[in-house]
C-alpha cells in the first residue's frame, strides 16, 4: 500500500500561465483528456481551473473564450500537498476542504496532482469510484 502522495499522484500536471485564455486551457484539457489545469504566475502555482469552472464562471455568463484568462476564473485559495506528505494527510485534507483534486507542489512548482479517484484506487480498489477512475475515458 502506498504511503506517500508521490506514490499515487499523477506526475507532470498541465500548467498554464495566468495569461492563457480559457479557450487554450479547454484545448489543453481536450488534448490531454483531463478535467483541470494548474495556473501559474512567474513559475509559481497560484490556482487551478476545472472544466466546470470554465462553464460556470465564463461560458454561462456568455464570456468569449478568447477574451477571458485562466487567471481571471481560477480558484485562488489553493490547498496543496508535498510529494512527501502521507496518503492519510491527502485523504484528510480532501475531506476537510471538500476537494476532488489537490496540486502537489515542490519548491513552488507543480510536480503532480492527486485526485479523489487516485485515493479511491489506492484505498478502496473495489469501490465503484475506483472502478470508474481506473476505466479508460469515453471517446
Describe this structure in a few short sentences.
The chain is α+β, with helices and mostly antiparallel strands and 139 residues long. The chain is built from 7 helices and 6 strands, in the order αββαββαααββαα.
Radius of gyration: 15 Å
Q: What order do the helices and strands follow?
A: HEEHEEHHHEEHH
Strand order of the largest sheet: 1-6-5
Annotated CATH architecture: Roll
Find the CATH topology. CBS-domain
- CATH H-level homologous superfamily name: CBS-domain
Description:
The longest helix is centred in the N-terminal third of the chain and has 11 residues, at 22-32. Helices cover 37% and strands 22% of the residues. It has 139 residues and is an alpha+beta fold. The protein has one domain (5-134): CBS-domain (Roll), CATH 3.10.580.10. A three-stranded antiparallel β-sheet has the order 1-6-5. A three-stranded mixed β-sheet has the order 2-3-4. Helix 6 crosses helix 7 (128-134).
Can you lay out the helices and strands and say which pair or pack?
Blueprint lengths: L4 H4 L1 E2 L3 E3 L4 H11 L3 E6 L2 E7 H7 L12 H4 L13 H11 L3 E6 L2 E7 H8 L4 H7 L5
Parallel strand pairs: 2-3
Antiparallel strand pairs: 1-6, 3-4, 5-6
Helix pairs in contact: 6-7
List keywords for this structure.
alpha+beta; CBS-domain; 139 residues; single chain; three-stranded mixed β-sheet; 7 helices; three-stranded antiparallel β-sheet; 22% strand
Amino acid at each position: 500500500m502506498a504511503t506517500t502522495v508521490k506514490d499515487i499522484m499523477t506526475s507532470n500536471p498541465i500548467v498554464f500561465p495566468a495569461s492563457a485564455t480559457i479557450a487554450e486551457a479547454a484545448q489543453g484539457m481536450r488534448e490531454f483528456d483531463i478535467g483541470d489545469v494548474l495556473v501559474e504566475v512567474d513559475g509559481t502555482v497560484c490556482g487551478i481551473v476545472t472544466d466546470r469552472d470554465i462553464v460556470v464562471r465564463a461560458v454561462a455568463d456568455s464570456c468569449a473564450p478568447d477574451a477571458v484568462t485562466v487567471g481571471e476564473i481560477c480558484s485562488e485559495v489553493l490547498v496543496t500537498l508535498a510529494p512527501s506528505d502521507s496518503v492519510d494527510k491527502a485523504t484528510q485534507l480532501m475531506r476537510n476542504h471538500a476537494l476532488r483534486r489537490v496540486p502537489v507542489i515542490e519548491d513552488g512548482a507543480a510536480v503532480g496532482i492527486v485526485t479523489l479517484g487516485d485515493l479511491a484506487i489506492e484505498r478502496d480498489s473495489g469501490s465503484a469510484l475506483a472502478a470508474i477512475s481506473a476505466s479508460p475515458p469515453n471517446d
